[in-house]
Specification:
By secondary structure, this protein is of the alpha/beta class. It folds into 2 domains: 160 residues, ATPase, nucleotide binding domain (Nucleotidyltransferase, domain 5); 171 residues, ATPase, nucleotide binding domain (Nucleotidyltransferase, domain 5), CATH 3.30.420. The strands form 2 sheets. Strands 3-2-1-4-5 form a 5-stranded mixed β-sheet, with helices on both faces. A 5-stranded mixed β-sheet has the order 8-7-6-9-10, with helices on both faces. Helix 2 runs parallel beside helix 3 and helix 8 packs parallel to helix 9. The N and C termini lie close together (11 Å). Bound molecules: 5'-O-[(R)-(carboxyoxy)(hydroxy)phosphoryl]adenosine (KG4) and zinc ion (ZN). The site of 5'-O-[(R)-(carboxyoxy)(hydroxy)phosphoryl]adenosine has 20 residues, from helix 5 and helix 6.
């Protein structure tokens, strides 16, 4: 089963071809970071227009790179949601038109399921069941994953997502969009222990998160440092490091508590925040100490990409799922997804 995947939920146009026998055949991505940077965040209308400009050349590039033809694919998958409505509609339209013109099946994919299963794109991949920590711009969730579509929610955020907290803290530190990677870079110059921030809910007896208080704590700290005349470049880096450490402390505590509670040995960390290097090294250390294994998607598949959409499309189509309805779902809770009975990958 060879599926063309189309991702246009936000500010990245991602296209890929995934084969259930051979794995990932080709992928291409266009990031709109430069387009939105001047505005300090994603401008939805500009995002949609840029997807329109990029999508067809990227599909052609992927087909060329895979040394195949559109006729030879078995189906088309697109991100149906969640995401920006206008941006999603670009992918949905092109995918539907292609499927109709080629007389191939079509499937709408949940963007977060793409993130959740993205470690399956690697050669060294986890086996079901596993624990997954999903940390992106809009989600901070812990799941017990039994198979494709079989997701038991163990923990969720009460307010902000981890990535959202990174982005807001970055803004308070005067860093440019996208905030997460910029904050992580600044944190490299930080000195540990110079300033102190809370670790929300770290000792709570449940697996839920809360990051909005941490954001407020950064605001209060920055104001205090400014008031004391101490808010120079070095101290900004110290705050960045303390913030990053606080988030990683909380995420690690909850994720490893989930492993213990479910007696699992495999942990997947997916979503944009999983690209954070401090998080990666801390999780690897803790996994070694806990006799567990942690799996991260390859860096290119941590943030938004077409490969994860092609992968999920192929896995679900191989099980017979089809979805010819043309619609997008800007708001779409992952828990509403139908389970796939077989555990085939
Ligand atoms: O998964 P993703 O690309 O898009 C969503 O589906 O949300 O995640 C984007 C989020 C943003 O909040 C971004 O700031 C964060 O992931 N992020 C990072 C890093 N790279 C991306 N956060 C911390 N450190 C990073 N290196
Ligand atoms: Zn995403």
């Amino acid at each position: 089963m060879r599926v063309l995947g189309i991702e246009t939920s936000c500010d990245e146009t991602g296209i890929a071809l995934y084969d259930t026998e051979r794995g990932l055949c080709a992928h291409a991505l266009h990031s709109q970071i430069a387009l939105h940077a001047a505005y300090g965040g994603v401008v939805p209308e500009l995002a949609s227009r840029d997807h329109v400009r990029r999508i067809v050349p990227l599909i052609e590039a992927v087909i060329r790179e895979a040394e195949t033809t559109l006729d030879a694919i078995d189906g088309v998958a697109y991100t149906q949601g969640p995401g920006l409505a206008g941006a999603l509609l670009v992918g949905a339209s092109v995918a539907s038109a292609l499927a109709l013109a080629l007389d191939k099946p079509l499937i709408g994919v949940h963007h977060m399921e793409g993130h959740l299963l993205s470690p399956l794109l690697s050669d060294d991949k986890p086996q079901f069941p596993f624990i997954a920590l999903l940390v992106s711009g809009g989600h901070s969730q812990l799941f017990f994953v039994r198979g494709v579509g079989q997701y038991e929610l163990l923990g969720d955020t009460f307010d902000d997502a981890a990535g959202e907290a990174f982005d807001k803290a970055a803004q308070l530190l005067g860093l440019p969009y996208p905030g997460g990677p910029a904050l992580a870079q600044l944190a490299r110059q930080g000195r540990a222990g110079v300033v102190r921030l809370p670790r929300p809910l770290i000792d709570a007896p449940h697996l839920h998160f809360s990051f909005s208080g941490l954001k407020t704590a950064v605001l209060t700290l920055v104001r205090q440092l400014q008031h004391e005349g101490r808010f120079d470049d070095q101290v900004r880096a110290d705050v960045a490091l303390e913030f990053e450490t606080a988030v990683v402390d909380v995420l690690a505590a909850k994720a490893f508590a989930a492993l213990r509670q479910t007696q699992s040995r495999q942990l997947v960390v997916a979503g944009g925040v999983g690209a954070n290097q401090s998080l990666r090294s801390r999780f690897a250390e803790k996994a070694a100490a806990a006799d567990a294994r942690v799996y991260f998607p390859e860096m290119a598949f941590c943030t938004d990409n077409g490969a994860m959409i092609a992968l999920v499309g192929a896995l679900r189509m191989a099980e017979g799922t089809r979805d010819y309805a043309f619609h997008v779902r800007p708001r779409w809770p992952l828990m509403e997804l139908a389970a796939v009975e077989s555990e085939q990958r």
